[in-house]
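Before relying on records like the one below, remember that each one covers exactly one chain. Contacts with other chains, cofactors or solvent are not represented anywhere in the record.
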Amino acid sequence: MAGKIKTVVVLVQENRSFDHMLGWMKSLNPEIDGVTGAEFNRATAGDPSSPAIHFGDGSGYVDPDPGHSFQAIYEQVYGDAYTWGTTSPATKPGVPSPPMSGFAQEAEKERAGMSSTVMNGFRPEKVPVYRELVREFAVCDRWFASVPTSTQPNRMFVHSATSHGLVSNDGKQLRAGLPQRTIFDALHDAGHSFGVYYQFPPSVLFYRNMRQLKYVGNFHPYDTAFKRDCKAGKLPNYVVIEQRYFDLKLLPGNDDHPSHDVAHGQRLVKDVYEALRSSPQWHEILFVITYDEHGGFFDHVPTPVAGVPSPDGIVSAAPVSFAFDRLGVRVPTLLVSPWIEPGTVVHDPASCGGAPEPDVAVRALVDPGDGEEDIWVEGVPDEARRVGGHGSTRC
């Protein structure tokens, strides 16, 4: 497939785990490492006498938002409360495979009854667009969030393979702009094209470099430009879809972030897919649908904590002092292309950034056609390029 793909389209949705969105797709394809209903958390993690809360298929509209801060996720994966760097190192020593046992416990601390919210997923018919894409294309069941924390650090990893030490949605740092080199810079310098199609002020502007005047022409309103460019066969080599992250008047958020209805996210994915499918470029396109992080929802697959290399050697500020040496929770990821066999399941570990390429889809799956594969990540630090010992590709 590598030599056939000339355009990669990336849509990063918000705050849902693999089991929550796609776990029950195992009923359609047993090869998917999803759920059977036997999965559970104890109400009190680690206490065998505590009631078992099994993972169900009754998910619907979610409000309020489950916990997904660094400390909340620590408790979700390890089953122990995080105590801000005093008795709890950012990565728990001596635990090579986290038990994923604290989702229900942590959820109840957020709000009484929330354990039911995080311990349920969607039946395939409730997310019909994903159901059809799982049947017709590829699902990745080993794709993990890059950082065990909230949205913006993970979004920064997507296009630069690092959050430059950020482990929270730090408004001051984000407004100032993060300084790292991005895939956009690499593409520009190599003479390749990219475009950001936005429905809301785009999150890629949190990269300081993306505020340069030379990139003004790379930003396009989604509603007026995306279908036009698809129809004309003028999509650039690298396409980023920036959805509505907040409700606007008469236009609800469609990023899947609770409390946004996933029905609106399904409509967005369908809209993007149908525009791509109708494009004369369709046979040169790879469409990647993934999520920034798991949003506090249960997932049964242990998050990688061993052999995860730091992308750049930066340690986050105290009191967390996180060395970026473990990944976040597994997230839904779909690969869509006419070159993919129906019903494909990709078991290779992956993620967005850190251990692998900032443009995992571009670097791993796309050959620019002239044999100079490295041109796609030219200028990206070696630490951000290499695949780590756990074989992960972070996004």
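Residues 154 and 292 are 6 Å apart (CA to CA).
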